[in-house]
Design goal:
Radius of gyration: 25 Å
Number of strands: 7
Largest sheet: 5 strands, parallel
Strand content: 5-15%
Oligomer: single chain
Order of helices and strands: HHEHEHHEHEHHEHEHHEHHHH
Strand order of the largest sheet: 2-3-4-1-5
Number of helices: 15
Length: 344
């Protein structure tokens, strides 16, 4: 892969959230400050929202890495497309407690006894809920009820809620008044600006040993920001492809044109192919026309993360084949074999 070609110790722009690459933009520093403040309070809810790929999960994992394990017992839940009782089971399971075959009353009792045990040890329990936008109102209320576990002096459970902007609508809906009263801090994580995006790219490269190869001029950085809009995940997707192109075409410097070439390639890959033999709109009954339109809309709503993962697997296969071909062509045996083939 391109890591060896550019002398890097690892892939700098992987899509997987990794606190090792945490970059403290202005927004991320403020969000981290809110999380740390909330942690110091030891009670209530902290809410962090942000666009898809804004870095919320990386933010939380960075925080969890800094938490002293002898003071705080933390559980992190990512799968939130669950009903209230399944969510309760997930909470119980995340704290390492048995949950199979237990009734709701048994689950609540186990969780309460666990939380009281944690408190007696002089520790605190922290529950982190990622992808909170998937929670329905009943599930959010179930989580709020868990905050009722407390002693005479303090709460036994503190909860961080992280989600996309639409979670704010859930939070401000009429039935969420009791939850809002327990939110001690809330912050919306916005995108990075152009200068921060450049610093972000250089930070991730430097983290894996970048020494200036490859180089990017001002136009390249402007194009990177123009595509990503300051969203870390989009920046990672683009830069991974840029470095892959650089490896395949043996490039050590990138300008605006080079970045835009990759941007066009990505756009073409995500463009839906035209369906062969699609009937003319006028030949379809109105109901059938609406059905076709709905299907197209559903296809456009396909998960970007799944597509990225598939593309990464495809790229790895292509790069492996190209690497083998390069070695064959570069060796004298390969050259001799080609010469014999040409004579035949």
């Amino acid at each position: 892969m391109y890591e060896t070609y550019y002398g890097l110790s690892a892939k700098p722009f992987q899509l997987r959230p990794d606190p090792h690459f945490f970059f403290g933009s202005k927004g991320h520093k403020r969000a981290m400050a809110y999380l740390e403040y909330g942690l110091s309070q030891g009670e209530g809810f902290i809410v962090i929202t942000g666009e898809v790929g804004a870095g919320k999960t990386t933010l939380v994992r960075n925080l969890l890495n800094k938490i002293p394990t002898d003071q705080i017992v933390a559980a992190h839940i990512v799968n939130t497309s669950l009903d209230p009782e399944d969510t309760l089971r997930m909470v119980v399971s995340s704290f390492g407690l048995p949950y199979e075959g237990a009734s709701k009353a048994e689950l609540l009792n186990r969780l309460e006894q666990f939380l009281r045990g944690v408190d007696r040890q002089g520790k605190r329990a922290l529950l982190v809920i990622d992808e909170a936008q998937n929670l329905n109102a009943r599930t959010v209320e179930e989580l709020r009820m868990l905050s009722n576990f407390q002693t005479d002096e303090r709460s036994l459970l503190q909860t961080f809620l992280l989600g996309q902007p639409e979670f704010r609508a859930t939070l401000h809906s009429p039935g969420m008044q009791q939850l809002r009263q327990r939110v001690i801090a809330s912050y919306h994580l916005g995108p990075m600006d152009a200068q921060e995006t450049r610093a972000y790219v250089e930070h991730r490269l430097a983290t894996v040993g970048w020494n200036g190869d490859p180089a990017f001029d001002d136009g390249a950085y402007a194009a990177i920001f123009g595509y990503s809009g300051g969203i870390p995940r989009k920046t990672n997707t683009l830069m991974d492809r840029v470095l892959l192109m650089g490896y395949l075409e043996e490039m050590h410097a990138f300008g605006e044109t080079d970045i835009n070439t990759v941007v066009r390639d990505i756009a073409e890959e995500y463009q839906l192919p035209e369906v062969m033999g699609t009937p003319d709109a006028g030949a379809l009954p109105q109901g059938e026309l609406r059905t076709v339109d709905t299907r197209v809309g559903d296809r456009r709503a396909a998960s970007v993360e799944v597509l990225d993962e598939r593309m990464m697997r495809l790229e790895k296969s292509i790069v492996s084949v190209l690497s083998i071909l390069k070695k064959i062509v570069a060796t004298p045996q390969g050259a001799a074999a080609q010469h014999v083939d040409n004579q035949e």
